[in-house]
Amino acid sequence: MLNSFSNAGIFLIQSIFDLYIFILLLRVVLQWVNTDSHNPLFILVARLTNPPLRLICRMIPSLHGIDFAAIILLLGLEMLKIAFLVWLQVNTTPHFIGLIVLAFAELLNQLINIFFYAVIALTILSWISPLAHGPLVEILVRVSEPLIKPIRGILPSISGIDFSPLILIVGLKLLTILLVQPLAQIGASLALGH
Asked: What's the predicted TM-score (pTM) here?
């Protein structure tokens, strides 16, 4: 019974951290793709992430459109989450270098997932309602296009079918397997001192 409460607590803590980290990472991506600041989804993300960033932005300014304050906060929150979960599960404090590598791997995985699911959602919307417009569609297009466009330049449509989203999805999953998973394994090994 106690183990069930412990598992539920760990799940709840991880979910809260993951949700806020996702929103903060979404802010970085939306800024990177120059999303319209009047877009309702962008406004919501900005409102949810502005409070902790106000103080950090004073010390760490943006440079060339990259919100370094948000990136530092992302890394810090991810490291805090991992350290807390390791402490709860194994009752030990992870080594700092391993913690940084694990946090970076986890953030990279979440970033890849944002692009992966944006492409899938945009593809499904293009089948269901090809002429759909709206704040969400605008964001999906802005997030997907920087990655799809170079593929379209290499592989044009075949018989009117655009295979570039499929190639991008496969490429993103390969990136996860070949880069993120080994990085996470190295980070876990360093963090736990194995």
From this structure: 0.87
